[in-house]
Amino acid sequence: MIHAVILAGGSGTRLWPLSRRQLPKQFLRLEGDRSLLEATLDRLQPLVDPANALVVTGCEHARGEAYQALRPFRTLLEPVGRNTAPAIALAAAWLSRGGADPVMLVLPADHVIRDRPAFHAALRQAIDAAEQGALVTFGIRPTHPETGYGYVRAVTDGRADAPVERFTEKPDAATAEAFLADGHYWWNSGMFVWRASTILDEIQRHLPDLYEVLERIRAEWHREPERDDPQPAVEALFHEMPSISIDYGVLERSDNVRLVPCDIGWSDVGSWDAVHELAQQDARGNAAQGNVLAIDCDNTLIHAGKRLVAAAGVRDLCVVETADAVLVVPRGETQRVRDLVGELNRRDAAESRLHLTVQRPWGSYTVLEESPAYKMKRITVTPGASLSLQRHQHRSEHWIVVSGTATVTRGEEVFTVTRNESTYIPIGERHRLENRGRIPLQIIEVQVGEYLEEDDIERFDDVYQRHQAN
């Protein structure tokens, strides 16, 4: 039996402002009409039955902006981020319950692979090695001295799989040049194949503190096997696990790692430079998406999300526009986007966390205008969905229905509000908004008060099991 474990818990900071902390790049459509997560699962077929795919992601994603994106998939939710080793250990333990020992394909959710037949051939080679008890990683032949990737040294000599000699974290430019000249270094793709029992044995050997917490989680699962729900035990104990990568915690310490070299049209889409390389370009090396006017430009990426972006006479730039932010950075320096996001986080800026249009399990809202005293939103509620029963301590709300029919709970009252009608929610009043109709409900909400942030929500009942302001 072959299972896929898709790691979808990253924050995607290097593709800001398109990627935000609460809706990172793995849930976005960077190419075509499929998100990177959807494309990752699609390309595994027919080797992996979709029913045997498990997505490991954060509670914040699954109960917030990525709720709809994750609905089609089986999920295992991390209450806090603890890097890849705890996520992989948790998935291996869950897939091993009842004595099973599947081969696990462990793949990031946010990569692009263009050559599916070559990818499948590499997977088959890796599966053969994993069935013999090896830990298998995939090596990508370097095309340039990249400092944003880790490296793996293995002398393949034409073999389908070769022993790994060493792992190296992201090098400086001179070291990357030396690796390229050496000829036996490969980019570390972050994709792995192994039996669940093999990786659990290695984790027990090399990461005993992590394994001890894992055993306590498994004991809770065994206590109620009929429940078939991993989350209560995970949410109680997962935070005690150390934060460590599978590369550093296990693979660099193991003598049982094999490398499958592959040429599969791979990219980790780890920067706007990578997006430019993947995009369709004109004769002068320009890649444009959205409403773009570019005159006399060269080697430039322009992404327009909301407005017209016009450029004349610019070269070697990445320009990315969204409704609330514009990024301008030279080509070749797009890794510095992480520095910008770090500064935004230091300032606790909303632009690092959310877009102006924020996805929610029940629909979405868009901030139309705000000031210190009021905020105006457009709220869309999908048919059959409802917001939580809640109240606010610092603001009142005025709702005007512009399409559909709203079912409103206000205190002990339950009533409907139709198009071109309105209602008022006083400060401190329990209330709920529902769409019991067949078409999307749209309202304009005007908040008035001394504090208008999303954490001024006290929930009393919520079908989406959210405990924070989502």
From TrEMBL:
The keyword GTP-binding applies. Pathway: Nucleotide-sugar biosynthesis; GDP-alpha-D-mannose biosynthesis; GDP-alpha-D-mannose from alpha-D-mannose 1-phosphate (GTP route): step 1/1. One of its GO terms (molecular function) is mannose-1-phosphate guanylyltransferase (GTP) activity. Residues 290-344 form the MannoseP isomerase/GMP-like beta-helix domain. This is mannose-1-phosphate guanylyltransferase. Its EC number is 2.7.7.13. It holds the Pfam family NTP_transferase. Residues 349-462 form the Mannose-6-phosphate isomerase type II C-terminal domain. GO terms for biological process: GDP-mannose biosynthetic process; polysaccharide biosynthetic process. It comes from the Bacteria. InterPro entries: GMPP_N, Man1P_GuaTrfase/Man6P_Isoase, Man6P_isomerase-2_C, ManC/GMP-like_b-helix, Mannose-6P_isomerase_type2, NTP_transferase_dom, Nucleotide-diphossugar_trans, RmlC-like_jellyroll. It is an enzyme of class 2 (transferase). It comes from Thioalkalivibrio nitratireducens (strain DSM 14787 / UNIQEM 213 / ALEN2). Belongs to the mannose-6-phosphate isomerase type 2 family. Gene3D superfamilies: Jelly Rolls (2.60.120.10), Spore Coat Polysaccharide Biosynthesis Protein SpsA, Chain A (3.90.550.10). Residues 4-283 form the Nucleotidyl transferase domain. The gene is xanB [H]. Keywords: GTP-binding, Nucleotide-binding, Nucleotidyltransferase, Transferase. It catalyses: alpha-D-mannose 1-phosphate + GTP + H(+) = GDP-alpha-D-mannose + diphosphate.
